[in-house]
Each structure stands twice: as C-alpha cells, then as structure tokens.
Specification:
This protein has a single domain, classed as Rossmann fold (3-Layer(aba) Sandwich), CATH 3.40.50. It is 28% helix and 26% strand. It is of the alpha/beta class and 256 residues long. The chain has eight helices and eleven strands. Strands 3, 4, 5, 6, 7, 8, 9, 10 and 11 form a nine-stranded mixed beta sheet that branches. A two-stranded antiparallel ribbon has the order 1-2. Helix 6 runs parallel beside helix 7. It holds the Pfam family MTS. This is N5-glutamine S-adenosyl-L-methionine-dependent methyltransferase. Keywords: Methyltransferase, S-adenosyl-L-methionine, Transferase. It comes from Roseovarius litorisediminis.
Amino acid sequence: MAEGWTDAQLSCDDFLGGQLKILQPLRGYRAGIDPVLLAASIPAGAGDCVLELGCGAGVAALCLGRRVPGVALTGLEVQPDYAALAHRNAVDNRIDFTILTGDLNDMPDELRQRQYSHVIANPPYFDRRSSTAAQDAGRETALGGETPLADWVKAAARRVAPKGYVTMIQRADRLPELLAAFSERLGSLEALPLIPRRGRSAPLVLLRGRKSGRAAFRLHDGWKLHKGKTHKHDGENYTKATACVLRNGSALPFPA
C-alpha cells in the first residue's frame, strides 16, 4: 500500500502502450498525456542527470527513464503521498528514480548541492486568481498550487548545469508569464505549440531554455496531436507521430 491510499483507492494505468504500469489515485490528480509529451521532448542521453520538479506519481520521469536507459532521474514532490506513490511506481517498473519530498522554494540539501543536465516540470496550469479551486487537495496542489510560475523557473534555473536545459509544459494562455520568467534566467528560448488538429489554436505549449544560451527566441511550427480537421469517429484519432510518442515511447523532438 502506498502511503495515503489503500490499493482499492488506486488504479493501475498503462502508459507508453503498456511499457509502464502506473498507480494513480482514483480520486485526486491523475496524469493524462501532458507529462508523456513533456518527457518525450527531452533530448537526454545515457549518463545525463535529470531533475523533475513536482513529479507527482512519477509519470514524466518514468516515461523518460523507459525511453532513455542509463539516464539518472531525480524527482522533487511537495506532497508526501504522491512522493511515496512515485517511489512505488519506480520500484514496480524497475526504473532507478530517486524521489525527495520538499518544496521547490526550500529544497532538501541533497538537491542544493547538485546540478542537472536537464530540469523538467509540469507546473500547475491554473492561476487561482481567475479560476475555481478543485475540491480534492492533492488535485488542487497539482493544478492550481500557490507557487508562482516565476518561482518554478527560478528553482529550475538554479539547479540546471551550465549549458543545460530547462523544459516545461504549460497552458498557452500563460505563455507570456512563463516567457518572462524564462527570459530573466535562461537563453536560447524555444516554444513548441501543441495543436489539437489543423485549424485549431494550441491550448498547450512546450517551452525550453538553456543556461547561458545566446540564440534568438524561436517559435516553432505547432505539433499536431490529431489527424484531420474534426474527430469523425469514436476512439483515438492521433497522428502517426503522436501515437508513436504515446504508445511506443518515441521522442517528440523540437524542430531542428
């Protein structure tokens, strides 16, 4: 039993076409495709060390660990129940993943003494000054936590090594706020919109910055998630490239 939930209060969900079996609370924050897309966008290689801020049940880090054998994974999670669940998921999936419990504004000493090739995060999407809080406390922390986006970026920039990368996924309507925070601390910024289908606006965006980077900002052509202009039939309608990311664990590269 993971701390905080009985097994009856958890579901076991397939990710990457069943390559990962992830326990998640039936009530609370449940990961969708967003952390999978985030993990797929990270250009990590064997021997790289990766820190995920706000790792939840561990979906993003474990997807990356399954795609890139030999990557060293560390996660920071403020909620002890989710940190315990992430540890259990790592053990069950036989992926080496160190999870620490703590706040990103008051990190454990073990993290403060290290720097990472990549820092990744899926910060809360909603600004609660203009939205309604979720009733479940765990879900609310994941979707509308009190920590400003600027603090997430500040913490990530401190922990990333020189020439290393920070990558985050966020709602497109908060991109101006996120870009401002990245611009203060990182360079070589690149944004990749995630578009539901042709002719639709992007609700989500991936943003990457490099420590000490000097390249000009790049706004890439959007990554299309679904085929066609409309969803005409029941079931999934992902593009071939997106299906390979979600089902086979393929990479989602930023365009060269």
